[in-house]
Amino acid sequence: EAISGARKTWVTTGTPGDCVKIGINAILTEEEQPDIVISGINHGPNLGSDILYSGTVSCAMEGAMMGIPSIAVSLASMHSDYEDFDFTAKFVRGMLKRLKDFNFPQKTLLNVNVPLLDADDIAGIAITELGSRMFTNTYEKRVDPRGKVYYWMAGELTNESADSHSDIAAIRQNKISITPVTYEMTKEEVMTDLEKTLCNHDACDWM
């Protein structure tokens, strides 16, 4: 169905990350390859440990893994309408102009969270680190009209880190949070101690 003013778009039945993979590797030609991948605007925050579960961030992560500068963008409120996305979209457009000459590090994306406020009420921009958010693990057992059982995730936020440099703190302070994130998750400082414990500096041949 054609919608006046709309551009041609594609829909996949895969994961959010699949959208980036199929778009770049199958749909776009070599001449159409993107200069940047922008994922979002997500309807809700992606703060702290949220990113481990986030389809929005995984899209940007796929772009970063392909060596393409990538940004994940979220409106940090679950209680918003699509009209509320206008300021966030304008902010991203302005940010892209400022990032024109920025050399994105390899394996790195930017995770952006914007508070649901009028432009005049936003207190600024903060370059942040990831905070920590913990939720209760609550699942409601339900039955659909066909009698099939399913579970609805209904956990509540129980704890947030209060570190002043975190993305969570920035949103609490009515600031836009921009966090550089990498998919390199190896805890390198633990490797030596782990090798001592399991291998005693020799080959791990005790199996």
From TrEMBL:
Q: Which GO terms describe its molecular function?
A: 3'-nucleotidase activity; 5'-nucleotidase activity; exopolyphosphatase activity; metal ion binding; nucleotide binding
The keyword Hydrolase appears for this protein: yes
EC number annotated for this UniProt entry: 3.1.3.5
**Keywords of the record:** Cytoplasm, Hydrolase, Metal-binding, Nucleotide-binding
Q: Which reaction does it catalyse?
A: a ribonucleoside 5'-phosphate + H2O = a ribonucleoside + phosphate
Q: Domain Survival protein SurE-like phosphatase/nucleotidase, which positions?
A: 6-136
Decide whether keyword Nucleotide-binding is in the record. Answer: yes
> What does the similarity note say?
Belongs to the SurE nucleotidase family.
| Official protein name in the record | 5'-nucleotidase
Q: Which organism is it from?
A: Candidatus Scatenecus faecavium
Q: Which gene encodes it?
A: surE
